[in-house]
Amino acid sequence: MKKVKLIEVRSELGAGTRGASMGIEALRVACWDKGSDYFKRFNSISVPDLNYTLFDKDVFPNAHRIDSILTVQKNIANAVEQTISMDMFPLVLSGDHSNAHGTIAGIKAAYPDKTLGVIWIDAHADIHSPYTSPSGNVHGMPLAMALNFDNLERQINDPAPETVFFWNSLKKLGFEGPKLAPEHLVYMVVRDTEEPEDYLLSKYGIRNFTYSEVNQKGIPQVAQEALDRLQGCDFIYVSFDVDSLDSKFSKGTGTPVEVGLTVEQAKELNHLLLQDPRVVCYEMTEINPTLDTENTMAENAFDILEAATDAILHRESKSTAI
């Protein structure tokens, strides 16, 4: 039975709003309030975050703090790769969603010859590059890094050579070339996108299960269809951004969006997806308690985290019993 290892990443360098670095502490408070022993049950390591550089002047307008983000992602990739090499399951709790590319780089470094599928549960597509991003916030770019996409067809920015250097370094992190093919990316409830992102989704036929589709078909069918779509993949990574929840449940996140999952739907979705034995890594991200009252977001997220972890442990014990 594989042991779960918690990888705590407090970096919020990629976010536009400050405070996501406190998300893990908020989860711990939620755990304590619930009387759970969750954080005692699993070994955890903390990846150095470089959040102190947020006080320095930012010199990368098209990809804010991309120099520090590269350093953080190298550390994340190393932690994930080592965890997998020790035959443990990396469960990543992270500040902002840019960190997810470091996770993907670590999975690819551990399995360079295997085909990776990604299920991205999020209100946003996160497929911008420094050439297309209207904000320059790197948490909108992790999938473009993994896919090796610049999307020059929809270029609106002319990033400086230093920015391009760090961008190209990030795209190469953990693995030369694309870590992921567009047909092996599945979105869940993405509903807040910009035109350059819509262009890529249309061009490559990237699947997005909309919220209306989720409601119409039900969570079990949507989860199964997502996994079936990735049947050609050896391994799967599931990334859960709490803003996939409807904004009435997700005040405590930097970019809440209306018409999203309920907490119960998110629990069921994560639980069902993580029962697939090909899932080798799970990430939860973008909890920002500074935007919240009474730690509601983290309390909801902790319930989802428990359901997800239970699925991982149940799956492992089930598969070893065969």
Automatic annotation (TrEMBL):
Transmembrane region(s): none
Catalytic activity: L-arginine + H2O = urea + L-ornithine
Keyword Hydrolase: yes
Pathway(s) the chain acts in: Nitrogen metabolism; urea cycle; L-ornithine and urea from L-arginine: step 1/1
GO BP terms: arginine metabolic process
Pfam family for this entry, one: Arginase
Keywords (A to Z) from UniProt: Arginine metabolism, Hydrolase, Manganese, Metal-binding
Keyword Hydrolase: yes
InterPro entries: Arginase (IPR014033), Ureohydrolase (IPR006035), Ureohydrolase_dom_sf (IPR023696)
Gene Ontology cellular component annotations, sorted alphabetically: cytosol
Leader sequence residues: none
Cofactor needs: Mn(2+)
EC number: 3.5.3.1
Domain of life the protein comes from: Bacteria
Cofactor note: Binds 2 manganese ions per subunit.
GO molecular function: arginase activity; manganese ion binding
Family of the protein in this entry: Belongs to the arginase family.
Entry protein name: Arginase
Annotated organism of origin: Pontibacter flavimaris
